[in-house]
Automatic annotation (TrEMBL), chain A:
One of its GO terms (molecular function) is transmembrane transporter activity. This is ABC transporter ATP-binding protein. It holds the Pfam family TOBE_2. GO terms for cellular component: ATP-binding cassette (ABC) transporter complex. Keywords: ATP-binding, Nucleotide-binding, Transport. InterPro entries: AAA+_ATPase (IPR003593), ABC_SmlMolc_Importer (IPR050093), ABC_transporter-like_ATP-bd (IPR003439), ABC_transporter-like_CS (IPR017871), Mo/tungstate-bd_C_term_dom (IPR008995), P-loop_NTPase (IPR027417), Transp-assoc_OB_typ2 (IPR013611). Residues 10-238 form the ABC transporter domain.
UniProtKB/TrEMBL annotation, chain B:
It is found in: Cell membrane. Keywords: Cell membrane, Membrane, Transmembrane, Transmembrane helix, Transport. Residues 76-268 form the ABC transmembrane type-1 domain. Belongs to the binding-protein-dependent transport system permease family. CysTW subfamily. The keyword Iron does not apply. GO terms for cellular component: plasma membrane. It comes from the Bacteria. It comes from Acrocarpospora corrugata. GO terms for biological process: transmembrane transport. The keyword Transport applies. This is Spermidine/putrescine ABC transporter permease. The chain crosses the membrane at residues 20-45, 75-100, 112-132, 144-165, 196-217, 247-267.
Length: 343, 277
């Protein structure tokens, strides 16, 4: 039991936060293990950032507790907690040099050898030689790395990242995703990051908590959340929802309820193609074809009612071939094990 | 025809600019800088002691009197001291007030506080000065009597909004995340203030101090009303224009605060505060 407790880097119990009459966080319980790369995923206004700010100490919960490594820190000020934050706007001090920014936390805590440590931290984010510059002289990606170095140099128990890649362009974002992951493996610190980008959450994290309306809808590994969404919201927010329900479910699957099939699990076939054992299928009309380079997206209106989206790799075909499918009738085929009942 | 004119204006940005600026430039050039130039020229003339007429010949005599006169040096230093004291008092009162307005108050309370700070500016200067005279008079509510202290107090009250508003604007521009970041990195309140808030709002403070300092330096009415027998530079100018009928000497005295303000502005300029006005 003791070991179990010690393994939790962060433990949230019945966490609530109201701003006036608005309940931003409506009861959150969460355990994050030591050394985990954990993502809090959700649309804006789902309460994920407020949870992060309560862990950092910028907001005081209306109810519930925040524990860091088994210690109740709910009422402690930010400067009394062993966590550091990478802010969405980076929050670098514009009147200090890059090196002074990175040294700030060490200087406050009177850590010895701080110059040396700050230089090492800058080197670890590949910014050697940038120490004398002002934050205003750096690009967005460089500022992001300074913010990371400034937080990591303090060796916190938990690093909190608030939409850390939100302000970067796509290419830089993809680079930083890989880099963040590598840095986390290297330092072994628990990373807890907030994002509204489902792809980012899936590619970077060990586990994901999906937030909606101040509550956690599902916690699990990226594969669990993606392949077995626990609710219609998760199915829709993490990936394309592709729901079959009501009379369509009765007609196509022969059972009642709501079911989800991911677009890439659907095969687009000729309407008269025979269906193998263990497969389900549905016929319909292709109403839209979206060519996206490596893959093509087909929007199919089912004869039984409802609409499915199928994603096909462009292995053999060209854009000319797939565009010609608009307005034709097709049969969508998938294996039974890829369809999931949604509660 | 109107179209042709519009097209012409669109093409020639220089013409457009000069048309827009002609009226303000005329005002600035003639009424404002012209008056200052006249003042400077007058300072080098003198008055005939018998007839009281202006003698329009160049002379240094006014400035010689000014520099050698012990009493003028005392008055200049006193004025400087009053202006500095008012600036410091306003800063100490305004900063926490502006901080509360910009960072702690709800958006609704923020609007009301701005209105509350601005409202006294709508009341007449004289009314407010006389109000303080009544407050300070022996037998009044405060009853501290008149003098330099009363002058500093009253001026601090009068110019306070001019210090609060620039600092408030400066703090509004300071992202909250910087305060969060300092706390996150272990800094307590005082350290956050010293290392983050103060350096980043200093230009705003300097901007506010230009108002409080220059307004105090030029004042001669408040000191007449609550200053008892103390005199400031403004009184010397006023008395020389009126009672003493020595316009050239008044002009020479009036260049002193102008010079002090030029030095002050040059110092403030180095902080980058002028971009905050």
């Amino acid at each position: 039991m003791f070991k179990f407790m010690a393994d939790q880097a962060v433990a949230l119990r019945g966490l609530r936060k109201s701003f006036g009459s608005v309940e931003a966080v409506a009861g959150v319980d969460l355990d994050i293990a030591d050394g985990e790369f954990f993502a809090m995923l959700g649309p804006s206004g789902s309460g994920k950032t407020t949870v992060l700010r309560m862990i950092a100490g910028f907001e005081t919960p209306t109810a519930g507790t925040v524990e860091l490594a088994g210690r109740d820190v709910t009422r402690l000020a930010p400067f009394e907690r062993d966590v550091n934050t990478v802010f969405q706007d980076y929050a670098l001090f514009p009147h200090m040099s890059v090196l002074e920014n990175v040294e700030y936390g060490l200087r406050v805590k009177k850590v010895p050898n701080r110059r040396q440590k700050a230089l090492e931290a800058l080197a670890s984010v590949r910014l050697e030689g940038y120490g004398k510059r002002r934050p205003g002289q750096l690009s967005g990606g460089q500022r992001q790395r300074v913010a990371l170095a400034r937080a990591l140099v303090n060796r916190p128990q938990v690093l909190l990242l608030d939409e850390p890649l939100g302000a970067l362009d796509l290419k830089l974002r993809e680079e930083m995703q890989v880099e963040l992951k590598a840095i986390q493996r290297e330092v072994g610190i628990t990373f807890l990051f907030v994002t509204h980008d489902q792809e980012e959450a899936l590619t970077m994290s060990d586990r994901v908590a999906v937030f909606d309306a101040g509550r956690i809808e599902q916690v699990g590994t990226p594969a669990e959340v993606y392949e077995r969404p626990a609710s219609a919201f998760v199915a829709g927010f993490v990936g394309t929802s592709n729901l079959i329900s009501g009379p369509a479910a009765q007609a196509v699957l022969g059972k009642d309820g709501t079911f989800s099939v991911r677009p890439e699990k659907l095969r687009v076939a000729a309407p008269d193609e025979p269906v193998a054992d263990g497969e389900h299928s549905a016929t319909g009309l292709v109403t839209e074809v979206v060519y996206a380079g490596p893959a093509t997206r087909f929007v199919v209106d089912l004869d039984a009612g409802g609409r499915l989206i199928a994603l096909q790799q462009n292995l053999q075909v060209s854009s000319m071939d797939v565009m010609g499918l608009r307005g034709t009738r097709v049969r969508l085929v998938w294996h039974r094990r890829h369809e999931f009942a949604i509660v | 025809m109107r179209r042709r004119l519009a097209t012409c204006l669109h093409r020639h940005a220089g013409v457009r600019l000069s048309l827009l600026l002609s009226a303000p430039m005329a005002w600035l050039g003639l009424a404002y800088l012209g008056a200052l130039a006249a003042l400077l020229v007058t300072a080098f003339w003198s008055t005939d002691t018998f007839t009281g007429n202006l003698v329009r010949t160049f002379t240094w005599v006014n400035f010689e009197d000014l520099v050698t006169g012990e009493v003028y040096r005392t008055i200049a230093l006193r004025s400087l001291g009053v202006a500095a004291a008012v600036t410091v008092i306003d800063l100490v009162v305004a900063f926490p007030m502006a901080f509360a307005m910009a960072k702690l108050a709800s958006p609704r309370a923020q609007r009301w506080l701005v209105i509350a700070v601005l409202t006294p500016l709508w009341a007449s200067y004289l009314v407010k000065a006389y109000a303080w005279r009544v407050l300070l008079s022996t037998g009044g509510i405060l009853g501290w009597g008149y003098g330099l202290g009363a002058t500093v107090l009253t001026l601090s009250y009068l110019w306070l909004p001019y210090m609060i508003l620039p600092i408030y604007a400066g703090l509004e521009r300071l992202p909250n995340s910087l305060l969060d970041a300092a706390g996150d990195l272990g800094a307590r309140g005082w350290r956050t203030f010293r290392t983050v808030v103060w350096p980043l709002t200093f230009p705003a403070v300097a901007a506010g101090s230009i108002f409080t300092f220059s307004l105090s330096l030029g004042d001669y009415i408040t000191v007449k009303i609550v200053g008892g027998r103390s005199q400031l530079i403004g009184n010397v100018v006023y008395d020389n224009i009126g009672a003493a009928n020595n316009l050239p000497f008044a002009a020479a005295v009036a260049t002193v605060p102008v010079l002090i303000m030029l030095v002050y502005l040059a110092a403030v300029r180095r902080t980058g505060a002028l971009e905050n006005l």
